[in-house]
Structures are given as C-alpha cells and as structure tokens.
Fold these 4 entries.
Entry 1:
Amino acid sequence: MKTPNVEGATVGEPREWTGASSQSAELDIAPTCTMSLSWRAFESFDRGEWTATLRHELVHVEQFQAFGATDHGPAFKRRAEAVDALVRVRRFAEPKYTLTCEACGADVAYRYRECKLVRESSAYRSACCEAPLNCRTRQE
Ligand SMILES: [Zn+2]
Ligand SMILES: [Zn+2]
C-alpha cells in the first residue's frame, strides 16, 4: 500500500484530523486510503492468503487513520497478530528488479530473481531508444 506519511506523524501518537493544522486543509480530515491489488497477486494467492493479506493492508489503513503514519514496527506486529493478519506480505506486485531505459526512463522489463539481464543490464539495449538498460533493485 502506498501511504504518504503525514509530516511529523508517528505511529502510537494519536492524530487529531480535525482542527487547526499547519499543513494543507486536506490533511485536516482522516484521509481516504486506497489499496491497489494486482491481478498477478489475485491469481496466485489462495483464499486464506488473500484474507491475511487484506487484513495486513487494513492494519495499515487503521494505523494511518489513527496516527497519520504507518509502518511495520512493534505496534503493527501486535495488531497484526491480534487480528490474524500477516505481518509480512508476499508481494507479487513488486518484482525484485526493474529494468529501465537509460535514455527515456521507461520500464523495459521486470525480473523476480537475478539473471543475466539483471547482472549485465548495461550490455542490453532498450527497444524504445536503443539505449543501455539500468537495473533498479526494489528496497525491502
Ligand atoms: Zn505492510
Ligand atoms: Zn527509451
């Protein structure tokens, strides 16, 4: 889930969404949270895994609406265990490696594990610009 943490907000510190805020007006109300779920994940998860994954995301929503911030810290872990959610989710939506075109920055390929394309990305040329490829590793 993509959640922009509110500046200065910390998990565990209740956030007052109404009232004077030095930040923009839209942060004065508890924000709507959007969950994006990929087809790839949809197809590869079984029902139990889905339930636990959705609960995990809902714990993030709950934290975010209460505190303006969310993470995978001790509070998250306690809450996840209490509601039978996964503490760590399996992410099919995010491949480990993204290969991009050095010239235009377009995503060229995704890889879930290391391979020749990942190791020697600059030896390959993109179809769009005939430019070398850059390999970006996803942050865990
Ligand atoms: Zn999470
Ligand atoms: Zn390009």
Entry 2:
Amino acid sequence: MNQTPEKSEAITLSTFDGGLKLSENKHLSTTSGISTLPPCKQYILPLQQHIGVISQALVKPGDKVLKGQMLAKPNHLISAAIHSPVSGTVARIEQHAVPHASGLPDQCIIIDNDFNDEWVPRQPLADEYINTDASDLRDIIRDSGIVGLGGATFPSAVKQTEKKLKTLIINGIECEPYITCDDVLMRQFAEQVVSGISIIKHIINVEQCIIAIEDNKPEAIKAMQLAIDKKSDDAFRIQTVPTLYPSGGEKQLIKILTGKEVPSHCYPADIDVLCHNVATAYAIHRTIYFAEPLISRITTITGQGVVQPQNIAVLIGTPMQSCIEHCGGYTKNSDELIMGGPMMGFSLESDALPIVKATNCLLVTAKDENPEKQTHLPCIRCGKCVDVCPVRLLPQQLYWYASSKNAERLLEHNLFDCIECGCCAYVCPSDIPLVQYYRHAKTTYVQQERERKLSDIARQRHEAHQLRVEKQKQEREERLRKKREMLKNKATDKKTTGGKTNKDAKQSAITEAIARAKAKKAERLKESETKSEKKES
Ligand code: SF4
Ligand code: SF4
C-alpha cells in the first residue's frame, strides 16, 4: 500500500476497484462563462439543506429581513445556518415541495423580495486571516452556513477538526457527466479558490495540500496552476487524475492520491486526511474576506432538453423554473428534469422547486436521449454489477435483501457504504434500477430507526409515568392508612374515657372546677358569718 507522500515527493497514483468510462457531455455547458440570474419575486428556503439536524427558524411571517440575515440557526453540532438571499419580508413558513429523492415536502421559509438589495451590516475580518485564531475562523464558517458544495452538504466547520491532520485534499474532480460548475469556477475564480484553500490550510494547520483535478479539464488545471504559482507556497500542488467515474467520490479520491482506504464506518480524518470541494473553498474565501454567508452558488443548467445550456451564479432559494427560463426555456423534445447528474441525480416531478445548497446541476434530458422506460427483468446473476462497484459491495445481494426488506442482511452487506454512484445500475443487463432500491432501503431503515428511538422514548416516558402514578397511589394509600389509624385510636380513647369524648371530658372538668370554687366561696362566707355572730354575742 502506498504511503502519503511528503510534499517534495512525486505522487504515485493508486486506483480504486470498479468504475466506468462514461460519455462526458460536458462541452454543452462550458462554451459560455458564468451568467448571473436576475432577481426573482420570491425565494423558497428549506430548513433542511444539509446533512444533519434541521435548522431552527429565527423569523416569523411578516418579519422584515435583510440580505445575508440569518433566518435559521444550526440546531445541533451537525446542522447549518440558513440566510436570506435578498432583503424583503417573510411571507410564510410552511411545508413546501423541495428537491429531494423522497419527493416529500419540507418546512420552508418563503421570502418576498423588496428589490432593495439591502445587506445586513457586515463585519469582514479586522486582521488578516493568518493572524486570526483557527477556532474563530471555524465559528465564522459555521455561522455562514457553509456546507460541502460537491453534493454531500456536510457542514464544513465540523469537518475542520482540531485533530492534527497530514493531508488536505481539494476535490476538483467533478467526474459525473454533464456537470461543469466546478470546472468553470476554477477557470474563472482560480485565485479566490486558492485563497479559500489557504484559509482551510491555516485552520487545520496541515502539512500538505493536494488539489486534484481530472485530466479532462486542461483550462481549469492551467488557471489553478497560475494561481498557485502566485502564492509561492510549495505545500500546494495540483495533481491531475485520469478521468474515470467515480474518481470524485471522497473515499475513491483519497485512495487514488494516498493509496489508503478509509475503513467502513470511518471518516477521512481517521486516516489523517481532510477533503473539501473547490466550491466550498470559494465559499470560505467569500465569507472570510467579504463576510458573505452562503446565499448563492454556481449551478450547471444543461442537457439536450434546455435551449441554452450554461453555468449560472444563482441565489439559494431561486425557483428552478426561473433558472430554466434564464437559459432559454425547455426544448420541444425535453423529457426528464433531474437534479444532479445522470448517474447520482434524481428525477424531479416539477420545476416549482427551489435551488438548494446541494444543487450543482439541473439536467434536462431530451426524449431521444432517454430510452423508453420499461419494467425491469429479473436478475440473471451475471455479476457485472460486482465488477464495477467502486466500494467492492455485492450489488445483486443488496438488491435481493432490499427487495425482501431484510434490514439485518442489508447491514451485514454494508448497505450504508454504498455511495449511490449508479455504476451497478448502469451496467445491469436487466435494467434493474438498483440505486432506487438502495436509496429506498436506506431511507426506510433510517425512518424505522428514528421511529424505534421515538417509540423507545415514548415507552420510557410511559414507564416513568406509570411509576409516578404507582408512587402517588402508594402515598395516597399511606395517608388513608394513617387517617384510619388515627380514627381508630380516637375510638379507643373514647372507650377508655367512659364513652366521653375529649371535649366532653374537658367540659366536665371545667364544670367540676367551677363547682369546687363555688363550694369554697360558700364555705368562706359561712365562716365569716359565724365569726360575726360570735362577736355580737
Ligand atoms: S448486473 Fe443486474 S442482472 Fe447482473 S447480477 Fe447484477 S443485478 Fe443481477
Ligand atoms: S451504487 Fe452502490 S452498490 Fe452500486 S456500484 Fe455504486 S457503490 Fe456499488
């Protein structure tokens, strides 16, 4: 196995298992530069645009908001803030359709644009980032809502661990067909991307930084090399990687560059590596230098089904139909709308959905590009899916267990290591939509686990309630027992006082005392009368 190279050494590239050579179709969207979308009337911001816990809304309907204002805060360590892309008013907070493979709606904040473009007061760093504490920079990145923009949307600040790491890998691979947003970003904003990488390097205090780019992006490689040369820091290096899908998968790229495998259930940091996407580095540059939270991204609008495929700089929350209109609208033979690429993307029912942090691409296919969808045939156990799986899973076994809803066997076969790259489905002669089975199985498992945990909590609460009720019952019975005992004692006392109650006894004692006093007084009177009589006689 290869060792992580020292910075002066040449890198000996390794390979991962499986993978596919695919038609790239990237030229469609790279002929023009990055265009900017005009402002829209309304923006839709889902509270869940990241891996982790849903954000907590900080605004309510009717509130005035400014551009860049935090609308929702992270609700957990693994969560991300959401910011307003424009100034305006919170129109509603409600369940709204969102771009998700499940097709389910989610809680969204809807902002009416006032078209004043009024920013929240911003405070860029007073000093150079190099003189700023790493934890302060991490806090800024967290408060800016920056997540992995390669599609994973894992909160970036959480990845920037305090653990001493050896290698920072910047992922500029973009291996999926059609998608070119990272390519054009590197071509057009190479210096800003390298600036963001320098900030990350400072935060994690890493020894070396490898910027990996597939060899099908010569212009991006050239622009990035120029930007690095200007820095004169030999800790940086560009590494071109042969074009093979899915080289851009985090674990696959780490294997290619370091020869090391990230073990199942482990993170890259466990083998001293941190991986960030080029677009994430660019977002970090914007937030540190301009105090600009993550309110926009570059998205590829492409495919034979859209009139002018291109890359657009778009505000998060923009309705997708506005993006398609900006690109000339749909062609007459447009067919399917997909978020993401043809391999890892998922089909959308409508374009009345918002661009979210994860939207790296909207692909509109044409009817002649899509073979007629047919019911899939049974698995013939040909093993082709096994040959191409980059994670060395057994896709056909996963398919059996997903079909039979056998969660135990799915876990044994490492379902959650599947990166949903789609290689297995691509080669399957029976046209089985394997990834759909895996996604459904994962969602069902996560859902069941959540329900199990909720039911455990409910059961524990019920048991605690039962204990409380039982204790209260015992306390009540004890009080009753004591009362009964007291009454019984009173009854006994009555018997011993000749049937008299304490009150009766007290009253008779008083009467007796009065009688005794009267008798004494009468006696004294009689004595004095006797003495007087004696004196007179
Ligand atoms: S490629 Fe398709 S048919 Fe062949 S073993 Fe895999 S699932 Fe079965
Ligand atoms: S989708 Fe999953 S099972 Fe299929 S090839 Fe990719 S990693 Fe392997």
Entry 3:
Amino acid sequence: MIRLFLCALLAIVALAQEPVAARVEAIESLTPNVKRLRVRLPKSYKFEAGQFALLSVPAPFVEAWNAKYKTTLASVRRPYSFASSPKRLPVAEFIIQLAAPPTGRDVPPGIASTFVHNELKPGDTVGIGKAMGDMNKAGTGGTRPLVMVASGTGVAPFVGLLEHWFRTKQHKGRKIYLFFGARQRRDLMLDEQFRRWAAKHKNFTYVPALSDPAPDDKWTGATGFVNVVLDKHFTGTLDADILIAGSPRMMQETVKVVKAKGVPDTQVRHDPIKVAP
Ligand SMILES: Cc1cc2nc3c(=O)[nH]c(=O)nc-3n(C[C@H](O)[C@H](O)[C@H](O)COP(=O)(O)OP(=O)(O)OC[C@H]3O[C@@H](n4cnc5c(N)ncnc54)[C@H](O)[C@@H]3O)c2cc1C
C-alpha cells in the first residue's frame, strides 16, 4: 500500500515537472540581439510575477544541432524569466537574448536562444516547465523602497514585476527604483515603456545607464556600469529591499555596493545563477 502511494506520488511529481505545450503567438525584435516571445499557455498554467520557467528545445532541433556542430547534447532546457504579469494569463511573454559565441572562440552559438531566434515562429508550440523562483517575495508587506538592478535581459523579471505591481496597485505607497544597465542606447530594451511608467507612476524612478554610449546615441543620462551608478545615486546608508538580475559579475558587484551601504543579506534577492535542467 505504502509502495503504491509512493509510486503515485512520484508519478504526480514527474507529471508536475513535465513541460506544457505553449503556442507561440508572436516574436518581435526589441534590440538587434534580443527578441520578445509571446506564448499562449494552457488555462491551468499558473506563475507568479518575477518567476522563471524552463523552455525545452525540441529533440529534432537538438539532433540537427549535434550533427552540425559535432556536439553531444541530450535534452536541452533553459530557464527564462516571465516578462509579463500573470494577470495576462494564459498569455505570457519572455525576453530572450541570442547567446553569441564568446569573442575569439570558435564554438557554436547558444542552442536554446538560437532555437528561439531562428527557428520558432507564430503557430508553433514550445515546451514550458513549471514556474520557479521567489523574486516576487521581495519585501512583501514592508514599506522600504524596492530597488531593482538589472543588466541586459536581466531586466525581464522586473518587466513582469513592474507590470504586475502597477496593474494591481501593489506597493503603491513604496518608492520603486529600476536601475537598468546596457552598453549602448540600442541595447536599452523597452526604454520607452519604462519612461512611460515613470511619467505615470510618481513612486517609480527609472535610471538607465550606458556603459559605452555610441557618439550617435547623444546620451545625456547616467554613464558607467550600473552598479557604480547605483553606488553614486544613494549616498550614505540605504535601507531598501534589493532585487538583482543580470550578468553574474554585475550581480556580485551590486551585492558588494548594497552591503557597504548597510543593506542586510535578508533584504537582497536574486535568482540562482544556474538552474539544473
Ligand atoms: C534563473 C535564470 C533566468 C534567466 N532568464 C533569462 C531571460 O529572461 N532572458 C535571457 O535571455 N536569458 C535568461 N537566462 C539565461 C538563459 O537561461 C540561458 O543561459 C541563455 O539563453 C543561453 O542559453 P543557450 O542555450 O542559448 O546557450 P548555451 O548553449 O547554453 O551556450 C552558452 C554560451 O556558451 C557558448 N559555448 C557553446 N559551446 C561552447 C564551448 N564548447 N566552449 C565555450 N563556450 C561555448 C555559446 O556560444 C554561448 O555563448 C536566465 C538564466 C537563469 C539562471
């Protein structure tokens, strides 16, 4: 009896891990190497703002990849953050950067991001695993400012969280900041959207920062790495809930900055750097 119960439990757990089939509704370019993917999920699928899920690369694509690049990849799943509010379910969005080979290395590009950028098209289905992560738990119930720090597509969970908070009027009485680092203006995805939100919601401050603006950018905003811009913005001590997403290097540097300003570990939140598929 106990064995039967355990088998049933394992089957339920295994089923819960199974990806669901999501239908692709649209794919659009946000920057030269970032696309926004909009999917329609089954009605039963749930996620919370700021969470992420594993996207499965179909086996035939992996087999063709192995043949082309002489690799030996088996099943391929990669985590991507929901970049939309769960209020829009069954529709959800992701923001995905094409992972180019590291400079000077003769290696293949990233498989999952290549699949999304070059293969997926509206009408296709794609496997999405169950939602994970607890970015949404940041500062629940507190009154401290919420400070988000992102670089590149690390901004994705914050797009979802901000959209959700503004829709539901959550954290209306708190100051909310988004520090967003990119290299050049063309990499500053959704800049217009963030500026519109900042104009509409008086408690929201948007601080874009370019690390290497192009002359044509005519950039008059903050320059330098986003962690340095954050450091300069808050002089003295800081009592805030901090959310960080982006490159591991930026995350490490940002943790150092906020710790030096007296923010305790319990008020700093970020997703895991790697997620086992
Ligand atoms: C919690 C979490 C959330 C995330 N959310 C997002 C998100 O919202 N948006 C987003 O764009 N990304 C996100 N990511 C990153 C994403 O999961 C993938 O890591 C990313 O898209 C690269 O996956 P890939 O399969 O395309 O590249 P991979 O195939 O994993 O390759 C990664 C890199 O390695 C290089 N490479 C390939 N072969 C070799 C080799 N032999 N030697 C050296 N280098 C090699 C590739 O060129 C590529 O640059 C998230 C990651 C985490 C952990």
Entry 4:
Amino acid sequence: MQDDSFIPNENIAPVRHRRRASTRTRLLVTAAVAVAGLGLGGVAVAAAGTDDDGTPPAAAEFDAQARAEAASRADRSARDSATPTPASPSPSVSASPTAKPTASAKPKATTKPKPKKTTKPKPTWVNPMKGATITSCYGPRWGVLHAGIDFAMPAGTPVRAAFGGTVEKAGDVGDGYGISVVVNHGNGYLTHYAHLSTAKVGVGDKVAAGETIGLEGSTGDSTGPHLHFEVHQGQLWNQIDPAPFLRARGIDVAC
Ligand SMILES: [Zn+2]
C-alpha cells in the first residue's frame, strides 16, 4: 500500500519538471525576441528566466512584497484603529483619580489606632483576717501535715473571702473542720475557712473579695478560737502552702 501511494507522486514530479522546462524554453524565446528588438538587457532577462517559471522574478518578488506590505499595513491599521477604541475610555478612567485621592485620604486619617486602655481595676486578694496573730504555719505539726495557716483573733471576728468566687461548701460536715466554708475562685484555686462559729454564706453563693463569709470560732477539732485558712490548687483538698501564695498576691503573712 505504501508503494502504491508513493508511485503516483513519482509520476507527477517528472511531469511538473517537463512542464517547467517548456515554460522556460518559451521564456527564452520571448527573451531572445526582446533582445533582438531592444538590443540591451537581453542577457539579464535570459539569465533571470532560469530562476522562474513564467513571470520575471523581480516583478514577482516585488508583487509579493507589495502585497505583503499592503496586507501588513492593513493589518496594522486595523490593529491601530482597534487599539484607540479601548484607549479612548481610559481618559475617563484617568479622570476618576481626581476623586480617588480624596477617597484614599480618608482611610489614612482613620489609620491612627487609639489603644483604649480599659482601666478595669485588677481583682486583688485580701487578707482573710487582717491584723491577726499567726499561731501556726503550713507544714508538719505533731506528726501530721498542718495544711493551712492559723490566724488568731478574739472570737466572733469577721472572716473575709480572700478573693471573689462561688461558695462550694458551707457548714459542718463532721470532717473535723467544724463549721467551714470553701470558696471556688474559678481560676484554679479554692480557699477554705475552718472552725467558724457561724457561716454567713450558703453553697452556690457568689462572694466578692473581702466579703464576710462567717465569724471566727472554735468548732470541730480546735483548741481555741482561730481561723484555719487553706489554699487548694487545681482541685478540692489539694492544699498548698498559703504563705508564698498570698505573698505573691501582695499579702504578707508571718510564715
Ligand atoms: Zn489550722
């Protein structure tokens, strides 16, 4: 099949060649006639005849060149006439910048951020029984850990919440602490007030720092009126030393 399609091409080629040759001879004849008539330039025409089939090469080249130039000119003019059209709306666009500066100037004026300092008073811790004598600190005592600080004052002295929070325990549950109150401060810490003569708050009550939550007494396992104060960290009954804890919050206790 490949040979079949190849053969016709070979057959056409010689034919074209022959036809070409015949035109060339015809041209040479015409050239010869021209030479006879003019006497000049015949050699040039004859020599040129070997290059082209019918039309003189110079004329053909010029013709093709002229046509191409004309086409490109037309193309250019078409392009040139096309470009101005989208270009004409641009002036109206460039006219708008006069309005733009005023618009861009506005955000610049408002870019000055005024950092509003919320002068909210920082919640402070208070001494649960200010002016009391410290009779026992946190640490081992009589073979067991004394898990709080003892504050001594005359019986009935108000006991204040060291910090704001919610009452989690209030009353005597028979655990040796007597009438005691636990306040959950909601920040990972709880405070415990024990041996009270009376509790002034109930479970679920919201209390503020310095608010009276009970009165000093000697209920539970106690040898005399005093406030047993504890700080629980993270969870109830995880007592830590209240002295450094309070000192870090501006309350100095003699421990
Ligand atoms: Zn104690």
